[in-house]
């Protein structure tokens, strides 16, 4: 009984520390993304954003290599050795070089598909991210295994500052969409350097692919799923790039960027901690169910007010931050924010299945979602961009029920329990945003309206949680107080 209490306390402290640094990292990254994005959006046109947006799916697939596949497998191994890291390193480097060569040769076909000849040199430059990210899969897995979120935070923030500064300077000097492309490649270069600096790990020339073969049955499903998830999240950009002008793609890309910045603040915070924490309690299904439910509540506590709030203030945010030339992105952003509130919840479910080694279930659920998504979106293409985005959002929200069905079978986390954990946060966030909107709709000054809405909504949400004695809020406050106390003692 005592040992279990100690274990629970240690897990709680490690999880809290991991979430703390993950939140600082994600928050800092999104804040810097916001500032840099504002400068770039003011310097560049929707058409220039649209050009790079057409290739977004490829650069995001490169990022999948860093966090998925064998990286996930390395995190799950109980007793890991250097040979495991080394094997994964050389396998991924070889595969990324092969993939780069294939995409390099396919660049003219990609440009022809989107009717944009300039994509040939641009895509070949952006595809370098595939090689760069493959180099730091192993050191990244080391940091994740040990919940080294502070080190990951420092690396991410440094990479964003350096790459963002270079991009803004290039945009100011007329380098157009090349500034956005350079930002993405340089960001991955700095991230890679930081991973090696903090792990002090080096690959060796003695290559043994036995660990890769052992991990392959698990890893390939995770990697395929990550690739499919990226396709699912960016399918609209590809379709729009084919059917509509670059300016329309740019408006959607801008809306999706703001939506992603907001939901990734929560998603990245949770995803960096969820898998190692859930993996540590796989031997006790009842305990894992409790940990999973608590992580889901924490995610809902942050995601619903953040995303519903952004939907409410989207007109003021877009017009103030990046100007009237982006006004057509506002309704798209509002729709995306509603479904974006559910994206962080997907992360918790996905990490549950990965922690149990159920990469096949993870993969087939994602494949099914993509198939339904494509059918729904393409069925609406004659109705225009807005209808397609609405269809996309509806499927994203409803498909969470499919994940819940399989989670119930896996660990006994019931549908009723999910509703009890999620609905209060969703309903309170909706009511708070509704009241805030009604109370403030008569304010005519756009700047004052934005400030008042943010402050009022945040105050009402926290006060409501306080009055209802929400345990999540109390634990967050306790942890912040303990951090302050520790700093004062030091």
In short:
The protein is mainly α and 490 residues long. Helix content is 85%, strand content 0%. It has helices at 2-43, 46-53, 56-67, 70-76, 82-114, 119-126, 128-134, 137-145, 149-172, 177-199, 210-243, 246-280, 285-321, 330-340, 343-355, 359-379, 385-398, 400-411, 415-440, 446-467, 471-489.
3D architecture notes:
Mean pLDDT is 83; it is low at 1-9. It is built from 21 helices and no strands. The protein has helices spanning 2-43, 46-53, 56-67, 70-76, 82-114, 119-126, 128-134, 137-145, 149-172, 177-199, 210-243, 246-280, 285-321, 330-340, 343-355, 359-379, 385-398, 400-411, 415-440, 446-467, 471-489. The chain starts with a helix and ends with a helix.
Key terms for this structure?
490 residues, mainly alpha, 2 domains, 21 helices, 85% helix
